[in-house]
């Protein structure tokens, strides 16, 4: 750097002091999970990168006293931001988001308890700021520096380079970190708290701008469309489960191809297979997962709202503050107590915020469970322990309740302890697929055990139990192994779409009417189906699914990328296939189904695109704020 005197510029000293302090806070005060050396490294680097980025801006001030002032105040403000996050974290195990800052209620919680949150040793965290203040005031002659233009540009170039390096490592460690935005904790771990706040600010302002410019004018068209597709006639199951508890189990990465199937000549899911045969169970064999980048959270969004997830990012994250007319909100009106059980950190997928918007009363996250070395693997608590430890909470609820359980063990990369393995892995070039089968079996056993516990505690009789796979577990990267397992020559776009099928079971104890349901259906259909089973009217609601038991259905289900499956045709990867045979419909007129006259997929495709647009309009414009759904809360 082009420096006239041999002073060590204060901005470098500040970077080092503030960087060390921030690192100490990240590493030892926040409870951030670090799984490997790379994560450790990124966590170590990012505090210094952020500090350098901010403090190096001081070089642009000509005047020494302005330089000093800038450093003093930025270090103080930086520390206050860190400290408020720390206090917030002590209550919520999460980081502050911009909407939360403006939500009086949230901050109010913090306000009343703020004194109890401050720890005596916290003042040590301000030591660097004190040193910076002291140096900047008393030792100005020793640390003030004159910079030439080249020095300034160098400092700027350096900070951008460091930032790019940091982002590059972060993206390597967590692909799609910025587009998918899974979790605030991941962002903070990878890019630091200051860059996270910047990112959050940009995201939020994008969302807010779209919201500000939206008005009610789109609603009439949407309502008209929705009216047209809603099932008109009631099925004979309408109201069959009125007043019953609803136990909804979202099973991680459970695909339909394992049902009634074998690996190494062994049944994969004996319990679920027995449910298929059970006279109280409706099993949907052509039920599709419709998720996009938000995976589990997208499947939750589809189920709770019967709206489509977004094409990029997780709607749980981007639109967690919207108005919804979700399943739990509607159940609450009927006196239900709504809870979620999921042994993961509460901020993952922004669940802690989104669940409030959806009308959940309580979220039993990781902290509600006793998680030990022995009872956890991979993503956390094993499914058997998860159900075992949840039952006591269920027993304590007033009925009726709606409880959603989200399992975890059958998650990529499908790790399982030897002692939990009851069937052998498959043998192919993909360890992912190989290991998938034993973890699916483990979860199948966990479900069986849970059913037993529900029966033992007497909850079973008064409940309906829904089991649904959230999305695929085996991605396209394993197509070769997958085709070997399925005995196909290769996996075509048609096959790929068929592999998006996940099982759905609706088990109504004592109903005796169960059967296998074969119509094309999807996660979008769950909300109206459940409401109708419970005898709850949906006439004034706005949603895009159909009651799975009604015979007046729109006849197709769509995917976020515009692909669809209808009764007769499948549109996948821009081509149209015969649904029954999987053969492309018309070789000459096949690709580009959007606008080909005569292609049987074209008219459906047009509806599909319109439907997605309407759903997006609702979410981006937060249009439900303009609708009176007739709820009292
Ligand atoms: C995380 C769990 C898994 O809490 O739901 O999420 P996924 O990666 O499947 O979306
Ligand atoms: Mn999932």
UniProtKB/TrEMBL annotation:
In which broad location class does this protein mainly occur, judging by the first location in its UniProt entry? membrane
UniProt keyword annotations, A-Z: Cell membrane, Membrane, Transmembrane, Transmembrane helix
TM segment ranges: 7-29, 41-61, 73-91, 111-133, 153-170
Sulfatase N-terminal domain mapped to chain residues = 244-536
Q: Which PANTHER family match?
A: LIPOTEICHOIC ACID SYNTHASE, LIPOTEICHOIC ACID SYNTHASE-LIKE YQGS
Q: Which Pfam families match?
A: Sulfatase
Q: Which gene encodes it?
A: yqgS_2
Q: In which organism is this protein found?
A: Oceanobacillus kimchii
* Membrane topology, record value: Multi-pass membrane protein
Q: What name does the UniProt record give this protein?
A: Lipoteichoic acid synthase-like YqgS
Tell me where it resides.
Answer: Cell membrane
Can you tell me which family this protein belongs to? Belongs to the LTA synthase family.
């Amino acid at each position: 750097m082009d420096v006239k005197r041999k002073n060590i510029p204060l901005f470098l000293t500040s970077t080092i002091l503030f960087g060390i302090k921030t690192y100490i806070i990240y590493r030892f005060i926040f409870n951030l999970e670090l799984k490997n050396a790379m994560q450790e490294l990124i966590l170590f680097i990012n505090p210094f990168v952020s500090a350098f980025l901010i403090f190096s801006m001081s070089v642009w001030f000509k005047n020494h006293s302005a330089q000093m002032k800038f450093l003093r105040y930025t270090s103080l403000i930086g520390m206050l931001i860190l400290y408020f996050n720390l206090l917030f974290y002590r209550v919520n195990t999460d980081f502050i988001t911009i909407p939360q800052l403006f939500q009086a209620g949230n901050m109010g919680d913090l306000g009343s308890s703020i004194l109890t949150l401050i720890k005596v040793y916290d003042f040590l965290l301000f030591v660097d700021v004190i040193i910076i203040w002291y140096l900047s005031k008393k030792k100005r002659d020793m640390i003030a520096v004159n910079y030439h233009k080249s020095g300034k540009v160098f400092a700027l170039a350096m900070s951008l380079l460091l930032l790019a390096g940091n982002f590059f490592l972060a993206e390597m460690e967590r692909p799609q970190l910025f587009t998918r935005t899974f979790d605030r904790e991941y962002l903070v771990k990878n890019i630091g708290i200051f860059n996270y706040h910047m990112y959050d600010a940009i995201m939020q302002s994008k969302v807010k701008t779209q919201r500000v410019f939206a008005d009610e004018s789109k609603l009439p068209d949407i309502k008209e469309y929705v009216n047209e597709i809603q099932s008109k006639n009631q099925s004979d199951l309408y109201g069959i489960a009125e007043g019953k508890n609803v136990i909804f189990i979202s099973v991680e990465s459970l695909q339909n191809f394992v049902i009634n199937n074998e690996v190494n000549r062994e049944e994969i899911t004996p319990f679920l297979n027995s449910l298929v045969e059970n006279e109280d169970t409706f099993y949907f064999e052509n039920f599709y997962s419709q998720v996009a980048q938000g995976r589990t959270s997208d499947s939750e969004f589809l189920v709770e709202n019967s709206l489509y997830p977004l094409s990029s990012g997780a709607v749980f994250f981007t639109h967690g503050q919207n108005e919804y007319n979700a399943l739990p909100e509607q159940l609450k009106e009927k006196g239900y107590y709504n809870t979620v059980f999921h042994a993961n950190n509460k901020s993952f997928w922004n669940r802690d915020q989104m669940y409030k918007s959806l009308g959940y009363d309580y979220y039993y996250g990781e902290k509600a469970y006793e998680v030990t070395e022995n009872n956890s693997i991979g993503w956390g608590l094993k499914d058997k322990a998860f159900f075992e430890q949840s039952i006591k909470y269920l027993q304590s609820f007033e009925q009726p309740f709606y409880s959603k359980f989200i399992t975890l063990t059958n998650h990529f990369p499908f790790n399982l302890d030897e002692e939990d393995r009851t069937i052998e892995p498959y043998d192919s070039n993909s360890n992912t697929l190989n290991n998938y089968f034993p973890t699916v079996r483990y979860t199948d056993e966990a479900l069986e055990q849970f059913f037993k516990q529900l029966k033992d505690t007497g909850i079973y009789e008064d409940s309906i139990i829904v089991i649904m796979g959230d999305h695929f577990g085996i991605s396209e990267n394993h197509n070769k192994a997958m085709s070997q397992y399925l005995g196909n020559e290769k996996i075509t776009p048609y096959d790929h779409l068929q592999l998006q099928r996940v099982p759905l079971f609706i088990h109504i104890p004592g109903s005796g009417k169960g059967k296998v349901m074969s119509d094309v259906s999807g996660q979008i259909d769950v909300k109206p189906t459940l409401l109708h089973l419970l005898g709850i009217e949906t006439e004034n609601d706005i949603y895009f699914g159909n009651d799975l038991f009604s015979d007046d259905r729109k006849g197709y289900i769509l995917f976020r990328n515009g692909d669809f499956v209808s009764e007769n045709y499948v549109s996948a990867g821009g081509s149209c296939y015969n649904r029954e045979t999987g053969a492309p419909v018309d070789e000459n007129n096949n690709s580009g189904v959007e606008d080909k006259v005569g292609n049987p997929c074209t008219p459906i495709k047009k509806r599909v695109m319109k439907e997605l647009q309407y759903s997006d309009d609702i979410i981006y414009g937060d249009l439900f704020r303009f609708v009176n759904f007739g709820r009292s809360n």
